[in-house]
Structures are given as C-alpha cells and as structure tokens.
Amino acid sequence: MSVLIYAENAGGKFKKSTFEAVSYAKDIADQNNTSLIAISIGDVAAGDLAALGQYGAEKVLNVSNAKLKDFVNQAYASVIAEAAKAQGADIVVLSNSFSGRGLAPRIAVKLQAGLADGVVELPAQDGGKFTVKKTAFSGKAFATVELSSAVKVISLTPNAYKVVPNGTDASVEDFSVENKESDFKAMIKDIVRSTDKVSLPDAEIVVSGGRGLKGPENWGMVEELAELLGAATACSKPVSDAGWRPHSEHVGQTGIAVSPNLYIAIGISGAIQHLAGVSSSKVIVVINKDAEAPFFKVADYGIVGDAFEVLPKLIAAVKEY
Ligand code: FAD
C-alpha cells in the first residue's frame, strides 16, 4: 500500500494548495504507516520536484512529455491513474482546485475508486471504516462520508490544511505512460492571466465587492485595501455581469468557490447563491449599510455603514498598522 499525491503546478511552479495537499497526504500516509509518492506532470525544475520531499513525499514521479505540457483533463487523469496502479497506491490525493475538480472523478472512474471531493479534515480510520468530512451543497454544509472501496480518491479544499515543511529532499524519477489518442479529444487549457495579483482560488485573504459599490470607478478602494492586505479581489455575480469586474473574479454558486482565512464582503447583500461560494471562509467580515442584509447572519464581524465612509477609514487604519 502507498499514498499517491498529484502535485499540481501552474506555469512550472507548485502552488500553495499543492503544498497543503502534499502535507495532508503525508499525514494520511503516516496514519497508515506507509510511504507518500508524488507525481508531477509538466515542466517543473528538478530542484522544485525534489523539494516536495520537504513536505513529506519520499519519491517524486516526473512526467515530462511535450503532449502533456498543457493541462488535458482526460490525459492527465489516465497518467495519474496508471501511476497509482504502478505504485500500488490505494489512496490518491489531489487539491480540489479548478484542475483537481475535473481530474478527481475521472481518476476515480479509472481506478473503480470511491471519491470524496472537497474534504476539509484528515480521514478517521476506526474499526476498518474510512470516513472523511467534506463540504456539501456548494459549501453550504459539511457531510461526513464513508469510503468503503479498496481504492480511494480524495481532493482537499484549498486553505483547509496546514503546510508543514520539515522533511528532506525526495528522490526524483521519470515516469511515462502511453496515452491513448482518445485522451486528447477534449483539450481544455487553463487560462492564466498575466498579472502579479494574488490568485483568487489560493488566496488567504479575499476583498470582495458587490453592487453596493455603485460602479467600476469605485473599485480603487477595494484594490487598495486588497494590496495592503496581500489579498485577492473578488466580486458578486451582478458586478461581473455588468462588466464592472472580470468574470474571473465572480465568486459564488456559479462562479469560483473560495475558502480563505478572511473574506471581506463590501456592499454585497449575501444572497444564497453568493454565500454558496464563500461560506467555508474561516472569518467573514461584512460591510453593508443595511443592518438587515442577510450577509450579517453568517458574518463573524459586521460593520453597518456606508462603504464610501468605512473603506477609506479602514484603509487608513491598515496603513497606520
Ligand atoms: P445586491 O443584491 O443589489 O446588494 C447590494 C448590497 O449593497 C445591499 O445589501 C445594499 O444594502 C448594499 N449597499 C448599497 N449601497 C451601499 C453602500 N454605500 N455601502 C455599503 N453597502 C451598500 N450571485 C453571486 O454573487 N454569485 C453567484 O455565483 C450567483 N449565482 C447565481 C445563480 C443563480 C441561478 C441565480 C438565480 C442568481 C445567482 N446570483 C449569484 C445572484 C444572487 O442571487 C444575487 O442577485 C447577487 O449575489 C446580488 O449581488 P450583490 O449583493 O452585489 O447586489
């Protein structure tokens, strides 16, 4: 038995959510007194591959193949499933990222495995039962599910697990799989924006604006606060529908699901479809001039006030701090 972790990279660099998933997979391997093997697909520097050992991987399988340079769901799933078979892995872990959400069910089908997606805690493994806590109903609830299959696939919610770098470098070996032509029938490319801004799905802090901000000309305050806090910016659906902000910033049921340590919602009412994508945030701060706004019901901290008065004061206070 072993545990296999898919170490996802973006543009050749491992993401924070990858280190979280490796740390998580290492703790599962320790629970089962077994080893953790990582697999990386794409062009990643040898030093970065070996450094996965610092998060717990004993060995890293490196798949570097021109046909797999860009993300292809089906082809990547085939490679990861074949690696799991070759390594005798009965638990496969990956991040519940944009790519991970597409890969996890495909890998599960190929391995005839049970799947728990969006998990937030280590599994409980008592009396032969394997249960995990995961988000459900677009993050509105948690469910505890039991996986009774021999092979299990688990995807970890970003920001749900601590990163623990304390090991030594891993050994790296090449791994290759002969992909079928059918693996390349549907090619989906990640769209990478050329920006220095913090990536929204991985962000630890998110500053988000809604229709209460009145128009795109007022987003300077949101961006300034985000920059001061090292945060990503986000928005509600009507804001991106109106073209005030790019669609890539739209969070919620039909947008990106985020689970940062801190979510600051400014001029957003807190409709159920918006909450679906943000309610697993650890701390929620709401700024809204309407004390009856539904967002206050799920807020940890709330400021009832006009965003145009509150935000400049907040920015000044953060600058002073
Ligand atoms: P509003 O509802 O107009 O709220 C604006 C808020 O700003 C109000 O609470 C108001 O009190 C406050 N405000 C006004 N002026 C100020 C001020 N000066 N200072 C402070 N506060 C102020 N929405 C999403 O966000 N994400 C989704 O993924 C999503 N998916 C959807 C899917 C479906 C199928 C449907 C039907 C809807 C979906 N929606 C989604 C839309 C959702 O129902 C809401 O309409 C939307 O979230 C409201 O956006 P808002 O809060 O920015 O705007």
From TrEMBL:
Cofactors: FAD
GO molecular function, one term: electron transfer activity
UniProt cross-references to InterPro entries, sorted A to Z: DHS-like_NAD/FAD-binding_dom, ETF_a/b_N, ETF_a/FixB, ETF_alpha_N, ETF_asu_C, Rossmann-like_a/b/a_fold
GO BP terms, alphabetized: fatty acid beta-oxidation using acyl-CoA dehydrogenase
CC cofactor note: Binds 1 FAD per dimer.
Keyword presence, Flavoprotein: yes
Residues engaged in binding FAD: R211, G267, I268, S269, G270, A271, I272, Q273, H274, N288
Record key words, sorted: Electron transport, FAD, Flavoprotein, Transport
Leader sequence segment: none
Residue ranges constituting the Electron transfer flavoprotein alpha/beta-subunit N-terminal domain according to the UniProt record: 3-188
Family: Belongs to the ETF alpha-subunit/FixB family.
Protein name according to UniProt: Electron transfer flavoprotein subunit alpha/FixB family protein
Native organism: Mucilaginibacter psychrotolerans
